[in-house]
Amino acid sequence: MEKEKIDFDELEDAQFQIEKGAFQPKTLTCAQCGLKAKKSQLEIAIGNDVSVRADGFECEKCGKQYLGLEEAKKLDRAMIVSRILRNDFKMERAISHDGDNWTMRIPKEFSSGVQKKKAEIMPLGAKQFCVSIE
Ligand SMILES: [Zn+2]
Fold first, then answer.
1. Which of 50-74 are b and which e, b meaning 16 or more Cβ less than 10 Å from the residue's Cβ?
2. Left, alpha or beta for 45 (phi > 0: left; psi -120 to 50: alpha)?
3. pLDDT for 7-37, tens place per residue?
4. Using CB atoms within 10 A of its CB, is residue 104 exposed (0-12), middle (13-18) or buried (19+)?
5. Domain of residue 18, residue span
C-alpha cells in the first residue's frame, strides 16, 4: 500500500472524521449518506515509514472513514512521537552531571500545572526518550 504523508498543519483536511459524540462508538452513521458505516480496521500513515492501525468505521457507499475519540487520541500520540523522531520540533536544553546522574531543567511551558512531581520516561531508542510529567 502506498503511504501518503500527512502535513501536521493541515490536519483539518485529513480524511478521517472524528466522531464527537462517543468515546468508543459501537455503531456509527455516515454523516454524508446517512447509512450505517461498517466497522473497519484503518491503516493510517503518519509519516514516511510509520503507519498506525486503528479501529474505526468505513461507509460502504462513499468510503468515508471515521474514528472514535479513543482511537483518535491514540493517533494523536502516535503523531507526536513520529514528529519527535523526525525532529520537526525540538528544544535544546543543557544537561549537567552531579557525579551520579544527568539532570535537565524542564521548560516552564511544559511544567505549569505539575502536581505529582513525578515523571514517566518512555524509551524511544538508545539515546532518545519521551518524558511525561504529572
Ligand atoms: Zn457515506
1. ebbebebbbbeeeebbbbbeebbeb
2. beta
3. 445 444 445 666 655 566 778 899 999 999 9
4. exposed
5. 8-85
The C-alpha atoms of residue 56 and residue 25 are separated, in whole angstroms, by 9
For the chain, what is the domain count? 2
CA of 37 from ligand 1 middle (Å) equals: 7
Residue 2 lies in a domain: no
Distance (angstroms) between ligand 1 centre and the Cα of 35 equals 6
Q: 56 near 68, Cβ under 8 Å?
A: yes
Q: What pLDDT digit, counting tens, does each position of 105-118 carry?
A: 888 878 888 888 88
C-alpha cell at 62: 462513499
Ligand 1 mean position, distance from CA 21 (Å): 18
The answer as to whether 53 is a domain residue is yes
